[in-house]
Amino acid sequence: MRVDSHQHFWRLDRGDYDWLTSALAPIYRDFGPADLAPLLKKHGIGATVLVQAAATVAETEYMLQVAAACDWVHGVVGWVDFDLPQAAADIARLAQNPLLKSFRPMIQDIADPHWILQPHLASPLAEIQRRDLAFDALLKPQHLLPFQDFLKRYPKLRIVIDHGAKPAISAGAFDPWAQQMREIARDPRVFCKLSGLVTEAGSDWTEALLQPYFDLLLDAFGPARLMWGSDWPVVNLAGGYDRWHAAASTLIDSLSVAEQDAVLGQTATSFYRL
User: Low-confidence residues of the chain, pLDDT below 50?
Assistant: First the structure.
């Protein structure tokens, strides 16, 4: 089964999405299952993972409601406020729903790159581990060094790095991102998503521009720990679903059929326990 491991829905009238303004015209509207379904059908994708896009528990509850009514949303990545004393209790409550597969603090928006090393995170992270849930790491390159310490502190946490840690592709930045991602990939429980790369590459991106970043991630993680995701509808800022899916298909074309199957579905199915 083909799986889109990273997609979003939102409704503007919810008021959750502080980052989503009229300046982002291509995505400044409601997006729901009826908008995504034709794209999934076109590309033979049978399941998705719905990922939080707002820093509210209410949005996670909204996503779980949407997923329950949509037979092809097989998992939800939610959010809780890890800084609050009730974070572990919120995780425990939300985890009662079997569609809840992972949690994702919005680390990319937190000013302190060492936030993930704060001692008070131990309680909610222990609850995630206790329930055998996953952790989506929404990182940027400046978080990669602290993240290596994070991995040592939580050796039993199942982790996927979203968007390849958002390398600054449009600026041509490669090292030290590449070196640090190789180091992180030495830990066999860390997975990585091929999602969001085109947004970091700029509107005039080409497959050739993406190639060295893809090659690095493939070499570091291997197909069994890489999963494709659309990052829809954010991907509409950088060419859209069809263009990114076509580019990804070209990038993995040299892999064996089994390896392509892993990147396009089996890795996500296994990691998220879909």
Answer: none
CB distance 227 to 191 below 8 Å:
yes
pLDDT digits (tens, 9 = 90+) for 165-223: 999 999 999 999 999 999 999 999 999 999 999 999 998 999 999 999 999 999 999 99
Q: Report residue 33 as tokens.
A: 């299952």
| Inter-helix orientation angle 241-251/207-221, to 10° | 60
* pLDDT at position 203: 87
Output the domain CATH number for residue 52: 3.20.20.140
Task: Give the per-residue pLDDT at 167.
Answer: 98
Contact by Cβ (8 Å): 9, 33: yes
Q: Which of 235, 268, 242 is nearest to 39 (CA)?
A: 242
Which residues on adjacent β-strands are paired with residue 159? Answer: 135, 190
Distance CA 82, CA 63 (A): 19
Structure tokens at 125: 């992270």
Nearest in space to 136 (alpha carbons), one of 113, 169, 107: 107
| Domain assignment of residue 171, given as a range | 2-272
CB contact at 8 A, 268 and 227: yes
Find tokens 């590309």 and name the residue.
43
Report the amino acid identity of residue 66: V
pLDDT, residue 180, reads 98
Taking the C-alpha atoms of residue 260 and residue 226, their distance in angstroms, rounded to an integer, is 10
Instruction: Provide the total of helices (H) and of strands (E) in the chain, helices listed first.
Output: 11, 8
And the tokens for 173? Answer: 């930045």
